[in-house]
Design brief:
The protein has about 650 residues and is α+β, with helices and mostly antiparallel strands. It folds into four domains: about 5-105, Phosphorylase Kinase, domain 1 (2-Layer Sandwich); about 115-290, Transferase(Phosphotransferase) domain 1 (Transferase(Phosphotransferase), domain 1, Orthogonal Bundle), CATH 1.10.510; about 305-335; about 420-635, paralog of FGE (formylglycine-generating enzyme), CATH 3.90.1580. The protein has helices at about 45-50, 55-75, 125-150, 200-205, 210-225, 250-260, 270-290, 305-330, 420-430, 485-495, 505-510, 535-540, and strands spanning about 5-10, 10-20, 25-30, 35-45, 85-95, 95-105, 150-155, 160-165, 170, 180, 345-350, 375-380, 385-390, 390-395, 405-410, 410-415, 435-440, 440-445, 445-450, 460-465, 470, 580-585, 595-600, 620, 630, 635. Helix 3 packs antiparallel against helix 5 (about 210-225), helix 3 (about 125-150) runs antiparallel to helix 7 (about 270-290) and helix 5 packs antiparallel against helix 6. It is globular and about 80 Å long. Residues about 180-190, about 295-300, about 330-370, about 515-555, about 610-615 and about 640-645 have low confidence and may be disordered.
């Protein structure tokens, strides 16, 4: 309905269409005064045209849209999408002026809750199920609880109506929301929803719906997460049950699902809080079964005459542990306290210490004292950069011409993830005046930056339409940009005041991020997870797991950048799945001395997972070449990001 470049209400520039629903159309737009992207939702023109001859239905459509505005704007909760603005205007179109009403909401470019669910289902893995419930489903329940607390019922809960803002689920699409505070709407338009998640009473009589209708939908979502994508044999509006659950947790969840999806609403949980309470009880029971507590009655009472010997034994043990610790820290006399590991000496010189067992603290970019470095920096493209301590680094065998050489690296910052399709498209649109596009070849400043087109079957992420670049499907926005040349990668890095990593910086970051560097390589801890457990993402997607716990399957491609767990430095996807552009510096052979640089590919694209922490040597390539499994990330030296224009 709205063409790219349309200025709406003198405030919003339409960038692209994000999709259409039954009666609404959503666009990505740029807010001119605050310079941020938002989601603009309007009533679909095609939908209105079907109602032109029915004034009652037309009024119902407009009323429903206004209802969504009021419903969404009345809630303030981190798991519910936020309304930014609401307005009405007129657009000049063929046939005259067209009245238009719109909602401006926060723009969330990520995937949906569906992305967090395995098509095969989580059963029989209890740990995986527990992680998903805690990380994703409970926040959804909190959001639904906030909706109900405001006196509303959503009436269209499904995985596609929960957007993922990173790892934070946010409930969207209140077009069917009902509230005792809002005037009721009559007419056939009300018989809406998604059959697989719709309660029986909603199908029969929408006016009979209450909070228990949403509980029915939540029960269906939970069932789908466990059993896998909704089986075609599932009968709509009926109670669902798991097929012969065996493990205790899934037996408990089966009872919960059957109660939540009971056909009679009076047989369901009466509130989201009650549903969440029984789910937490089921998880607690699982934990208790796995780690039973020792009762006081099970302990033997130590006779008084043996107490002094017990204390003596404890004292001797403490002295022995202390001696071993001192020996470990100081080292055997005449021997170096540093271990010779893979022919590499890594001596930390960083003025700041990074705790590898927990996520680095988040701080805003600000001027730093010369001797103090922040744990993280945030770039103007939204990228998070993590501190990599400096040190002396020696290249291992088969690492190109540098084999056996050592370099001293100062501290530097490396991007948490590879640059995504969304980020690169934003950059290209900022550089339109310097760009030429011809037959899928994107040139900037006369050099080839990017080759567009289908990369693998069904994956064609970036296109040039109506004078602007765009990501064609929302699910591809968070995947790494590939088939970008070294010229294109360097241009992006320079625009944001950064650069490509050198081969030795990349090697240094891979080594320091290895899980073997942690105290226990078998208990790999992702920031935000409890010690001794693997995250839900690691278990659901084996290609994202460190070698100590992941399965040997070949990684899937493409994969969103946040899929991969953070390594010990907080960096994701390093030396995994996708190769990366970098720079190799060598002493010049000319009489003038100095250094020469060449572009190289770092990492082994699509390598076998069992070699996840091998160190493939850098591969020299021409800067105008592009490859289907090669992307890039950026680094910056020191504690500041160079300023760039907004």
């Amino acid at each position: 309905m709205l063409a790219t470049g349309t200025v709406l209400d003198n405030k919003w520039v339409i960038l692209e269409s994000l999709g259409k629903g039954g009666m609404g159309e959503v666009f990505r737009a740029h807010q001119l005064n605050l310079k941020r992207d938002v989601a603009i939702k309007i009533v679909s023109r095609e939908w209105l045209e079907t109602l032109d001859e029915d004034e009652g239905e037309l009024e119902n459509a407009i009323s429903r849209f206004r209802r969504e505005v009021k419903a969404t704007a009345s809630i303030r909760h981190p798991n519910v999408v936020q309304v930014i603005d609401y307005g009405s205007t007129k657009l000049q179109m063929t046939g005259g002026e067209v009245p238009l009403e719109y909602i401006a909401m926060e723009y969330i470019p990520g995937a949906t809750l569906r992305f967090t669910m395995s098509e095969e289902g989580f059963e029989p893995d209890e740990e995986l199920m527990s992680s998903w419930l805690k990380e994703y489903f409970f926040p959804v329940l909190e959001g639904v609880g906030a909706i109900h607390a405001s006196g509303m019922v959503h009436r269209d809960l499904k995985p596609e109506n929960v957007l993922m803002d990173g790892t934070i689920p946010k409930i969207v699409d209140f077009g069917l929301a009902a509230s005792h505070c809002l005037a009721p709407i009559t007419g056939s338009v009300d018989i809406k929803g998604t059959a697989a998640y719709m309660s029986p009473e909603q199908f029969v009589d929408l006016k009979r719906t209450d909070a228990r209708s949403d509980i029915y939908a939540l029960g269906k979502i939970l069932y789908e997460a466990i059993a896998g994508k909704m089986p075609p044999t599932t009968i709509p509006f009926k109670t669902v049950a798991l097929d012969h659950p065996e493990k205790p947790l899934f037996k408990e969840l089966d009872r919960i699902i059957q109660k939540a999806t009971a056909e009679k609403r009076e047989d369901r949980f009466d509130s989201v809080g009650a549903l969440q309470a029984v789910l937490k009880e089921a998880l607690a029971k699982m934990e208790t079964t796995r780690h039973p507590q020792v009762e006081a009655s099970d302990l033997r009472i130590i006779p008084n005459h043996l107490v002094k010997w017990v204390w003596l034994g404890i004292l001797v043990t403490l002295l022995a542990v202390s001696a071993m610790t001192i020996w470990h820290l100081v080292g055997e006399p005449r021997l170096s306290p540093l271990k010779d590991r893979e022919q590499s000496d890594v001596i930390s010189k960083a003025p700041a210490v990074v705790d590898r067992g927990s996520p680095p603290s988040k701080v805003e970019t600000s001027p730093q004292a010369d001797d103090v470095l922040s744990a993280t920096l945030r770039g103007k493209d939204g990228a998070e950069l993590y501190l990599v301590p400096g040190g002396t680094v020696a290249a291992p065998q088969d690492f190109g011409p540098q084999t056996g050489e050592s370099v001293d690296l100062p501290p530097f910052y490396m991007s948490e993830t590879l640059v995504t399709n969304h980020q690169y498209v934003e950059f290209l649109n900022e550089m339109l005046s310097k760009i030429e596009v011809e037959q899928g070849v994107v040139r900037g400043d006369g050099n080839i930056w990017l080759l567009m087109g289908e990369i693998v079957d069904g994956y064609d992420p970036i296109a040039f339409r109506d004078g602007r670049f765009r990501v064609m499907e929302a699910g591809h926005a968070s995947c790494p940009v590939v088939r970008v040349t070294a010229y294109g990668a360097s241009a992006y890095a320079a625009f944001y005041g950064r650069r490509l990593p050198t081969d030795m910086e990349w090697l240094h970051a891979v080594r320091l991020g290895k899980p073997e560097d942690r105290e226990d390589p078998k208990t790999i801890q992702e920031p935000g997870t409890k010690s001794g457990t693997t995250s839900m993402m690691e278990q659901m997607h084996p290609q994202a797991q460190p070698s100590a716990v992941r399965s040997p399957e070949q990684p899937a491609f493409p994969s969103p950048v946040m899929l991969y767990p953070a390594n010990a430095l907080g960096i994701r996807g390093l030396n995994r799945n996708v190769g990366e552009w970098g720079v190799r510096k060598r002493p010049s052979t000319s009489e003038s001395g100095g250094e020469t640089s060449e572009y190289v590919i770092l990492g082994d694209p699509g390598k076998d997972s069992k070699e996840a922490f091998a160190y493939p040597g850098p591969i020299p390539r021409r800067p105008w070449e592009a490859f289907e499994r090669v992307g890039f990330r950026c680094v910056v030296t020191g504690g500041r990001l160079s300023s760039v224009k907004d």
